[in-house]
Amino acid sequence: MLRALTSVLRLPRPWRPLQTRSCASDGAAEDPEIQVRALAGPDQGITEILMNRPSARNALGNVLVRELLDALAQLREDQQVRVLLFRSAVKGVFCAGADLKEREQMSEAEVGIFVQRLRGLMNEIASSAVMGLIETTRGLLPGAGGTQRLPRCLGVALAKELIFTGRRLSGAQAQALGLVNHTVPQNEEGNAAYHRARALAQEILPQAPIAVRLGKVAIDRGMEVDIASGMAIEGICYAQNIPTQDRLEGMAAFREKRPPRFVGK
């Protein structure tokens, strides 16, 4: 599998583990649970985050969440990063959700702190790819923004049904409901979703970086408020994009009938 990926990714930089202050979530000295790699060549600008906690099926434990937050904080300051992909090093699973075994050992105060950090992580990723909110089947309440994001995606009635029943959804069902954008048949290597994600990243890559970033801000922040406030947020983002070199380049390229050359300024 690795040999096949190497040829596809065109000599990417090697995986770079984060410099962490602790060991793995289960308390044993293991490899870092999060690694980062920037792609090269035609894929330059795409950075990948690899989740590598096979012993717990990439469940979100204390260390994994901290390392993810650290990675996102570092990458946010890297102007070379235009598209970020999340990958799993564990075959057959992306992320098993919150680590309930680890949570069982926490005090009530520790649970509150962990859930707050997990909610912060979900806000950073801003992902609505939910395949099932099964917390109620374990005597829990979705604590990482699920009770807020799901109603915005599906409407209140259907969100309540999924949360109250703890129902698990197949990829096709999730796509039909609008929880995920794409589903793909699995391949022999088990990485069909990754290749579809990379293809989507390559579509985003040539677009104006600042416009994409401000568009994300306008959508994410606008969804949290009423329509009038959302329109005001959109106006602020639009105004910030006006003086950029990329906007002028885009207009010039359109006028001259050539592909634009965006530089992220």
From TrEMBL:
GO terms for cellular component: mitochondrion. GO terms for molecular function: 3-hydroxyisobutyryl-CoA hydrolase activity; enoyl-CoA hydratase activity. Keywords: Lyase. It catalyses: 3-hydroxy-2-methylpropanoyl-CoA + H2O = 3-hydroxy-2-methylpropanoate + CoA + H(+). Coiled coil: none annotated. Residues 48-110 form the Enoyl-CoA hydratase/isomerase domain. GO terms for biological process: fatty acid beta-oxidation. It comes from the Eukaryota. Its EC number is 3.1.2.4. Pfam families: ECH_1, ECH_2. It is an enzyme of class 3 (hydrolase). CDD domains: crotonase-like (cd06558). Belongs to the enoyl-CoA hydratase/isomerase family. This is 3-hydroxyisobutyryl-CoA hydrolase. It comes from Suricata suricatta (Meerkat). The lineage of its organism: Eukaryota, Metazoa, Chordata, Craniata, Vertebrata. The gene is ECHDC2.
